[in-house]
Amino acid sequence: MISQVFILSSKGDHLIYKDFRGEAGCNVVSIFYEKVTALTGDQPPVVMTHKDLHFVHIRQGGLYWVATTTADSSPFTVIEFLNRLTALVKDYCGSLSEKSVQMNFALIYELLDEIVDYGYIQTTSSDVLKNFIQTEAVSSRPFSLFDLSNVGLFGAETQQSKVAPSSAATRPIQSSREQGGKSEIFVDVIERMSVVIGSNGVLMKADVEGEIRVKCYMPSCSEMRIGLNEEFSIGKSQLRGYGAAVRVDECSFHQAVKLDEFDSHRILRLCPSQGEQTVMQYQLADDLPSAPPFRLFPTIERDSGGRLLMYLKLRCDLPPKSAAINVSATIPVPKGSVSLSQELSSPDQSAELKPQSRAVVWQIARFPGGTQLSALFKLEVSGLSSASMLEVGPVGLSFELPKFTSTGLQIRFLRLSPIQPGPSQRWVRYVTHSDSYSIRI
Predict the structure, then answer these.
(1) What is the β-pairing status of strands 246-248 and 116-117?
(2) Could you tell me which residues are beta bridge partners of residue 426?
(3) How far is 248 from 284, CA to CA, in rounded Å?
(4) Predicted confidence band at 155 (pLDDT cuts at 50, 70, 90)?
(5) Backbone CA torsion sign across 124, 125, 131, 136
(6) What is the pLDDT of residues 83-97, one digit of tens each?
(7) pLDDT the model gives residue 373
(8) Which residues contact 224 (CB under 8 A, 6 or more apart)?
């Protein structure tokens, strides 16, 4: 049983507030934010208590999504409700941000009225809610001249317009008039990589967690068939085919997925509902089919002037036609680091010293595969000693690898049956993110 639901910005601004039972006062919002900001650390506890009131919250899109309850409700049920609420808001508003919530507050209140009745959860299914939600979403994406780059002479399509932009799937599922009511379906293969590389360059840990996510903008779609690699195998005892095997250790599927053709042909069948849903999740541990995407060759020494010298060579081992974007290397440095001078191998790099976090952040906008970049950092450290030089490292990398999967999982085909009347588009996208990529020095 839920007493209240409210959404706060990262600064504590009240965006949405809904009281279902009237059991607690209006000051609970201020009480929650004071408790959250008073805690030290980046991850406050999900469940907090004030007298006989329980706060359950999650962080999504830089916002606090909070539910309160006075009864002994299961916290896992409330957390699952909040996760589904954020998914619904994202489906109906297009994105999760403070601006989109402010512009679509009427739509969110209408969703809450249909989802919860006097504190009892009724439904979180977008198929059921689409029959009752009448408010149309307001797009929060501003106009940009760069959106016209895909339009050719007299409005003709260019070759670039045949590629879906990264923001194509961040629109409401209820298409408005200005969006043209496009019938589209997106299938995203998303992987998160956790890697630990020792100081001698030996790979110590390599885990991959992935998922196949479907976002449907079609008003009605009877059945969709997703074909995976024919050599896809689960576990070491299930190797298939004669080609290069694509193997995972564990695999789970959405309850709506039909698996009658999976064992024989590696085909997933489902009837997708409007909005976003994860149809398959998988995991691979300590057995990457290819080398890690990045290698670091560090040299740490002290010069004659008493400064700390860090010479770093970072190599990208992706295929030559691939590239990593938004690469950021965080190098912890000793206490007392005052100033930084740098020599970077290319002009599209940047670096800065952050004294509060005691780290040097080296940023690379785009890193092509098969290339190597280097940086020389000279740090002024007060009281530098051999013991304080041991405080350097380990280096943490964050990056994004578009059009790449570390497991090799691929979508062979994406078919809709029966064939949809009118123009419809199907998009398949691949991306690998760094979950935790650590290189010891």
Answers:
(1) unpaired
(2) 185
(3) 5
(4) very low
(5) positive
(6) 999 988 988 888 888
(7) 94
(8) 185, 214, 269, 270, 271, 272, 414, 415, 416, 417
Whether the predicted pLDDT of 223 surpasses 80: yes
Predicted TM-score (pTM) of the model is 0.74
pLDDT beyond 60 at 243: no
pLDDT band at 194 (very low <50, low <70, confident <90, very high): very high
Strands of the sheet with 424-439, listed across from one edge: 250-253, 275-285, 203-216, 183-197, 424-439, 395-402, 323-332, 359-368, 349-354
Whole-number Å distance between alpha carbons of 130 and 123: 12
Give the total residue count for the chain.
441
Rounded to whole angstroms, how far apart are CA atoms 132 and 111?
9
Please state whether the peptide bond connecting residue 44 to the residue before it is cis, i.e. omega within 30 degrees of 0: no
Q: How far apart are the C-alpha atoms of 331 and 358, rounded to whole Å?
A: 9
Radius of gyration of the chain (CA): 25
**C-alpha distance from residue 421 to each of 183, 220, 416 (Å):** 10, 10, 11
CB neighbours of 168 closer than 8 A, spacing ≥ 6? 184, 186, 427
Report the distance separating Cα 187 and Cα 259, nearest Å: 18
What is the pLDDT, as a whole number, of residue 260? 92
Tell me, letter by letter, the H, E, C secondary structure of 226-252. Answer: EEECCCEEECHHHCCCCCCCEEECEEE
User: What's the distance, Cα to Cα, between the start and end of the chain in Å?
Assistant: 51
CB-based burial of residue 130 (10 Å sphere; 0-12 exposed, 13-18 middle, 19+ buried)? middle
> Strand, coil or helix: what is 165?
coil
Tokens of 222: 């009877």
What's the pLDDT at 157? 46
User: Which residues on neighbouring strands pair with residue 246, listed in sequence order?
Assistant: 232
Rounded to an integer, the average pLDDT of 208-218 is 90
Token couple for 383: 């009281």
**Is pLDDT at 61 greater than 60 in this prediction?**
yes
184 within 8 A of 424, measured Cβ to Cβ: yes
